[in-house]
Design goal:
disordered C terminus, six-stranded parallel sheet, single chain, 18 helices, 14 strands, N-(1-d-carboxylethyl)-l-norvaline Dehydrogenase, domain 2, Rossmann fold, 449 residues
């Protein structure tokens, strides 16, 4: 099948590459000529495991192409996906649909014959109706069906998620469109993912509701973690105990510094704003947003609490900058408010991340970047684990203790057992768990060594 993919961000590039890998002929379109030029030469603008090889293999086979020519691409396509960005609109938190509307107008002008226009961007309920109206007004003589087909891809596992989806949601009442979408996803039939055919508005709301619910689970367990710290309980055991209830499930019950990324924060805000427009306040989600934003800066106070005299003048090494492992995405990453709060307290910050250093430099100032964990930790007064990259899970603790000025570790992702860290002579703080023995004096540290 001939497919046009409008947008080459996380969703468009991953979706286009995977569809090409299924055997479809996909042309990815973007207005950014520099980005297209790099893609044509095999340079991938995002860090996503497996994507580089997937793009290269399908481009070499001629099934995946890149261009800035939207008109010519759409004219030759049987299905056109809109996968452009929908960032939070500056000032009010609504999803900014300018790119979606612009794409709809340009697609309408280029349509020839019956074409399915599939909105894969995350959009508020009713956006499909607006896209349909734009196409009808721009080119009333054209024959097109507008479908909602939200994505459910996790950054860092997007290729796997596309090829092994939990479900495929298709919002349409047009039988012709349904048949074309079914043919696009037919290669996945061997895995038998549930195909949910529903109305366009239902599909749009499913996406937002899913992300909002997951964000709520994260915020819930983070607040339970705070209570655990006060009463001497272990949030990991509590989470496991409630997660074994199949009505709840164990996913997204990992306490930490709060959620970030390109989806959860903006999607929760957009859903709140949509609900307000319809005079349906979503009080739970309003609380989720407020608690999450407050929590990120509160992690700096957890670091400062490790010192009787605070962090002013001290060097704090932060491991992990991206909002999650296996991505270089810095959008709304918890590391940003953590670092800026530490700087506001007078600390000097060093940082290391396996993939996102270039992106971090664009959003953080006055940070010294190390090229390894140990370069970052050398001479530091404290080490903070902010992102749970695999390479942080088996650190040489003996080496770290010798390198650091003070043996202090603040583990915001609960990677290590407290007793293991304490055995190597570190003061250790974590999230929602008993911290282990505290070494409050140099004499104590010498005895523990």
């Amino acid at each position: 099948m001939r497919i046009a993919m409008i947008g080459t961000g996380y969703v468009g590039l991953v979706s286009g590459a995977c569809m090409a890998d299924f055997g479809h002929h996909v042309v990815c379109v973007d207005k950014d000529a520099g980005k297209i030029e790099k893609l044509m030469h095999g340079e991938i603008p995002i860090y996503e495991p497996g994507l580089h090889d997937l793009v290269g293999a399908n481009a070499a086979q001629g099934r995946l192409k890149f261009t800035t020519d939207l008109g010519g691409t759409v004219r030759n396509a049987e299905a056109v996906f809109i996968a452009v960005g929908t960032p939070s609109r500056r000032g009010d938190g609504h999803a900014d649909l300018a790119y979606v509307h612009e794409a709809a107008r340009e697609i309408a002008a280029a349509l020839e014959g019956f074409t399915v226009v599939i909105v894969k961007s995350t959009v508020p309920v009713g956006t499909g109706d607006e896209v349909e109206r734009i196409i009808a007004e721009t080119a009333p003589e054209k024959d097109a069906a507008v479908v909602s087909n939200p994505e459910f891809l996790r950054e860092g596992a997007a290729v796997h998620d596309f090829k092994h989806p939990d479900r495929i949601v298709v919002g349409t009442n047009d039988e012709r469109a349904r048949e074309i979408v079914a043919e696009i996803y037919r290669p996945l039939s061997l895995n038998q993912p549930p195909m949910l055919y529903t109305s366009r508005r239902n599909a749009e709301l499913i996406k937002y509701a899913a992300n909002a619910f997951l964000a709520t689970k994260i915020t819930f367990i983070n607040e339970i973690a705070d209570l655990c710290e006060k009463v001497g309980a272990d949030v990991q055991e509590v989470a496991r105990g409630i997660g074994l209830d199949n009505r709840i499930g164990g996913k997204f019950l990992h306490a930490g510094p709060g959620f970030g990324g390109s989806c959860f924060p903006k999607d929760v805000r957009a859903l709140i704003k949509t609900a307000q427009d319809y005079e349906v306040p979503l009080r739970i989600l309003e609380a989720v947003t407020s608690v999450n934003e407050t929590r990120k800066r509160a992690m700096a106070r957890k670091v400062a609490a490790m010192f009787t005299d605070g962090v002013r003048g001290k060097t704090i090494a932060v491991l992990g900058l991206a909002f999650k492992p296996n991505t270089d995405d810095m959008r709304e990453a918890p590391s940003v408010p953590l670092i800026t709060a530490l700087q506001d307290m007078g600390a000097r910050v060093r940082a290391y991340d396996p993939a996102s250093l270039d992106q971090a430099k664009a959003v953080l100032e006055n940070v010294t970047y190390g090229d390894s964990v140990y370069a970052c930790a050398d001479g530091a007064d404290a080490l903070v684990i902010a992102t749970e990259w695999d390479e942080f899970r088996a650190l040489d603790l003996e080496r770290l203790r010798k390198l650091m000025k003070r043996p202090v570790i603040v583990d915001l992702r609960n990677i290590y057992p407290p007793e293991e860290i304490s055995r190597f002579g570190f003061d250790y703080s974590c999230v929602g768990r008993p911290p282990g023995p505290r070494l409050r004096s140099n004499a104590d540290r010498r005895r523990r060594r």
